[in-house]
Request: fold
Amino acid sequence: MTADEAFAALGKHLDDLARIPFRAWDRYRSDIAPTMAKPPKRMRATAMQALMVEELEAAFGGAVSHRKGRALLCTVPGLVVQCKKLDGRGLPQNYPTRTALQFASQLHIAGIPAGTRLTLGYMLNSPGTAIAEVRLLAQMGRDVAWSRELTVNQTVMPIVMPATTTAQLSAAAPKKRDLQPKGGAKPEGKKAPGV
Reply:
């Protein structure tokens, strides 16, 4: 299945999928990270995995099944989605177990529904302090067949501003002298003395 076909099939679910890593990260930062001086990276990845599965279950309920040690979203026929942390190359970080390799290679796995296997993944920024990207990807073995960034369309919230009068806006507007270039540049048509 191509990226366009997968995105079209997931349609209304894309925003929910994009939110899952961010919700898990918020919970990790508020509930788990404060309990340790410097959480090890492996512990952080394990906690994030568990939190992402909980967020997946909260968002999709009965469409999440637990099979072969994985929480899989099977809400759209023909698509099977897992959640993973991604490495710097955008590949899922997991142990190369037989099931993981079969999933990545788009092979049939007994007990897992047929369909294109996708990964909902997140990448942290280099200091590990925030989510840098959320991606949906399909692998073909150890290679990425396609990968696209997921964004939340509804994250642009209206900003409620206090009522402002025209007089207040005029008072806050920059003055003409504030708009002059710095460094002694003179308005066009006037020359500096001695030139």
Observations:
- The chain has one domain: 3-154.
- The longest helix spans residues 41-60.
- Residues 3-154 form a domain with the ECO RV Endonuclease; Chain A fold (CATH 3.40.600).
